[in-house]
Amino acid sequence: MGRDDATPAVANIDETALTVGKPKQRAVGVPAVTHAMQIAVEQMGPVRTGETLRLVNQKHGFDCPGCAWPEGDHRSAAEFCENGAKAVAEEATRRRVPPEFFAAHSVAELATWDDFALGQQGRLTHPMLLDEGATHYRPVTWEEAYAVVADEVAALDSPDELVFYTSGRTSNEAAFLWQLLARGLGTNNLPDCSNMCHESSGSALTETIGIGKGSVSLHDVETAELVIVAGQNPGTNHPRMLSALEKTKRNGGTVVAVNPLQEAGLLRFDNPQKARGVVGRGTPIADVFLQVRLGGDQALFQALGALLLAAEEAAPGTVLDHAFVEERTRGFAEYAAHLAALDWDDVATATGLEREQIEEVARLLLGSRSTIVCWAMGLTQHKHSVATLRDVVNLLLLQGNIGRPGAGVCPVRGHSNVQGDRTMGIFEQMPEWFHDHLDAEFGFASPREHGWDTVAAIEAMAAGRAKVFLGMGGNFARATPDSAVTEAALRSLDLTVQVSTKLNRSHVVHGRRALVLPTLGRTEADVRASGPQRVTVEDSMSAVHASQGRLAPASDELRSEVAIISELAERLLEGRDNAPRADWRAFRDDYATIRASISRVVPGFEDFEAKIDVPGGFVLPHRPRDERGFTTPSGKAEFTVNELEYPHVPAGRLLLQTLRSHDQYNTTIYGKDDRYRGIHGGRRVVLVHADDLAEQGLADGDVVDLVSEWSDGERRAQAFRCVAYSTPRGCAAAYYPETNVLVPLGSYADTSRTPTSKSVVVRLEPRDR
Ligand SMILES: Nc1nc2c(c(=O)[nH]1)N[C@H]1C(S)=C(S)[C@@H](COP(=O)(O)OP(=O)(O)OC[C@H]3O[C@@H](n4cnc5c(=O)[nH]c(N)nc54)[C@H](O)[C@@H]3O)O[C@H]1N2
Ligand SMILES: Nc1nc2c(c(=O)[nH]1)N[C@H]1C(S)=C(S)[C@@H](COP(=O)(O)OP(=O)(O)OC[C@H]3O[C@@H](n4cnc5c(=O)[nH]c(N)nc54)[C@H](O)[C@@H]3O)O[C@H]1N2
Ligand SMILES: [Mo]
């Protein structure tokens, strides 16, 4: 089986408009507003743009489908964020993909289009079926669509041949029903986008503090004395976080950035809502910038721990929070002994940093009474990510930086409800208590054997053990690693079903039969038998609040996710032994009935309905944050001993990270510019240190193939323009999803099994221009 790039056919790659300029030193400001407005007006027209953007993240509006950064208590009239506006515009677009579109374009033709071309077609309007052997999708009624699913599910030998994927935009209500349907049929095969995202955070935090969620509030970030932002590009991916960091700075706090790339948003922020940002010089964000090597963070956090321990030894009683360490934690002595043997040569190799740079940050830690560490994909997508994050926790525990104002762990989530989906049970290995509660609520016996995560699901498809794939949002074919392998796996299925808002590659990489089921987005009014419905979401800081769309739906045929799931459930569960006793019709007629069930199954949701009547919603309990209590088996926070790891790259090879440009939302491409990094008009670029290019006999502007090397062979992504860029020696960067073809399915993080999208060993092979 080939493992090379065929997506889209390389013959169609047109990057003639690509230009490269100088990276920016500051983020947001007026250009961001202008750019967002341009995209919004293109997609929605001027009137709808005004109406729609007014409702984003307002207390009676809809939750922004952009990112999971929380809303503050004091929202400005335009809680403005460039990339939030772009996310909204993509959903509220006036462009449509009606049945005539599918009649005009065969699936084979669409499979040669790139992600940008597919996504730009607009909103799906009608349920579509691809019959066995057919060349084109054809429109069907909802009833016919459900019958096809029922037919394929009835033909299965076991419910474990089903895969229920979830992306993180799904509301709590829909997610709760989705997992109930899967478990009602008898499987825990519930892979989700989180497996590829913050799973390492969940794994490390659950082991060490007993809960896989962040422990800080927005106010904590704004009032912390020290915030370390590691492995994250907030200027692009969480722009509203820059307003919080601006406040941290104004309150006298210090910010340290740890990143191989000098991301504009980490350098300087021009707040578009403040006159100062528009006309002045904006706010410098990072006081210290550690340009770390890819995968060098574990070494950095161990080194910082060792320096704190050394300072404590030099002046006993002045550095550590002894009371906290003694009363609330376990394993300190072993951790301290382990760090005493830290090899500083290893630290230098792993991080690429000077010892003085690390000592400077250690001094900031010593001087800070409240420290927060924020992180995202730069820390979670490596082989040793869970170990790295355990070492982040170790460092914070030393000074008692958990469960105290201005202190804590802050994994910054991606999708706007990815955290809520997990809370609702979207996980292949929910704890026993969850199953007990679910069984009690619905009078059935849910399956207890763990299901498949994303990597396991792809392996199962490839091995013929999975037969039917159902995707609740997302773009499984494109978001997953090892594109060629994954696409072949998807094509071997009997049926692929995608519940989607917009056209994407997962619709054209299909099983023997395929369904596209169009659904309402968050911006749209969802009116059911009992009237207009609201749904709920949970942000990165465990705040749950209501979201209510107001726009007229993109088409009369659209059904809400809740309606689709409950209608499917009635048909798939009918007549089965051990089916959950659920009133699916009541669920879809009035979402409050779903919330009533949630309130009995998930702790923290008692009085759910009343709590979301309060504008801004409510914050879920979090014992480490609220009472310094730890629900680990020992009842204490766990110091852990982790062998130091970092990527070893053979001579002549580079370590590639796959990351987001400024003009994309995961696999949805808004445009072909990456303004802050100086890239315009194209995406097939690889950012490489100038000396590495020279050493390989290459120059800026040369076109190369990226070839990844793995134990089972090579993978190739064709035709990338080399860009000389500021990044540590030996490190390179290129955009996802074009480079997913290079990430081997078998290369994932220990424990969390997150694909190693931030460390892929590659060589650059010159090709003729
Ligand atoms: N506009 C927009 N917003 C988004 C998204 C989007 O695509 N577009 N996606 C959403 C989702 S699902 C997520 S998960 C988040 C993702 O948010 P991010 O994690 O910010 O996204 P990435 O582009 O993957 O960027 C990773 C950052 O980590 C750095 N990095 C890479 N490897 C390392 C490393 O080994 N060590 C350190 N210290 N740094 C490293 C990279 O240089 C880069 O700055 O954003 C969410 N928000
Ligand atoms: N190489 C590499 N791979 C990665 C990453 C990386 O950094 N590098 N990042 C990983 C991460 S962090 C993540 S989270 C995953 C993302 O994985 P996914 O969540 O699967 O991908 P998205 O691109 O966010 O999904 C976009 C599609 O969702 C659908 N959609 C949008 N809104 C809605 C809605 O309201 N309802 C429904 N039903 N559908 C909707 C649209 O049809 C759209 O085409 O990718 C992962 N893959
Ligand atoms: Mo993500």
UniProtKB/TrEMBL annotation:
Domain Molybdopterin oxidoreductase: 123-570
GO cellular component: membrane
Name this protein carries in UniProt: FdhF/YdeP family oxidoreductase
NCBIfam families according to UniProt: Fdhalpha-like
Species of origin: Nocardioides zeae
Stretches assigned to the Molybdopterin dinucleotide-binding domain: 654-760
CDD domains: MopB_CT_ydeP, MopB_ydeP
Record family assignment: Belongs to the prokaryotic molybdopterin-containing oxidoreductase family.
Keywords on record: 4Fe-4S, Iron, Iron-sulfur, Metal-binding, Molybdenum, Oxidoreductase
Any one GO molecular function term: 4 iron, 4 sulfur cluster binding
InterPro entries: Asp_de-COase-like_dom_sf, MopB_CT_YdeP, MoPterin_dinucl-bd_dom, Mopterin_OxRdtase, Mopterin_OxRdtse_a_bac, Prok_molybdopt-oxidoreductase, YdeP_MopB
